[in-house]
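Inverse folding, one chain.
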């Protein structure tokens, strides 16, 4: 039976309890979830086999060994927005694909680690003056980070 997330594909690189539980719920609601495990399998399979089988039910599984030179990570993000103006329906799609080069220059390092490191530097140097907990979709955060990425 299709759920509200039918047609959505999630790549789950989490471990522990919270991430697999959350992606398990996405799977329950119809999303296709691909669980990426480290070489040899996720440690939760041996440590908490009952929990691992419950949290990861219905998921596809693949292993990735970043120590092997041929194994590289890749991030794929696709947004598909359907909207209607008057009686005309339209779809706008955007796609981002970032491929890792090796075990150091990974796709995660490029898309998460580098911007996070830049934001940290900007906060410590006083270029970002916000206090408290914020998300990076705020102009005061993303503009200086993007400027640094362009310059750097």
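Residues assigned per position:
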């Amino acid at each position: 039976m299709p759920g509200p997330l039918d047609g959505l594909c999630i790549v789950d690189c989490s471990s522990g309890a919270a991430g697999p539980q959350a992606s398990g719920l996405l799977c329950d609601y119809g999303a296709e979830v691909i669980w990426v495990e480290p070489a040899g399998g996720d440690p939760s399979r041996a440590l908490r086999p009952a929990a691992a089988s419950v949290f990861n039910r219905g998921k596809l599984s693949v292993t990735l060994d970043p120590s092997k030179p041929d194994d590289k990570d890749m991030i794929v993000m696709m947004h598909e927005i359907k909207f209607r103006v008057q009686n005309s329906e339209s779809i706008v799609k955007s796609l981002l694909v970032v491929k890792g080069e090796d075990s150091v220059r990974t796709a995660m390092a490029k898309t998460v680690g580098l911007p996070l490191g830049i934001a940290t530097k900007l906060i410590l140097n006083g270029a970002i003056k916000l206090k408290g907990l914020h998300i990076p979709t705020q102009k005061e955060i993303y503009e200086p980070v993007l400027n640094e990425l362009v310059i750097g």
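Residues 35 and 61 are 5 Å apart (CA to CA). The chain has a mean pLDDT of 87.
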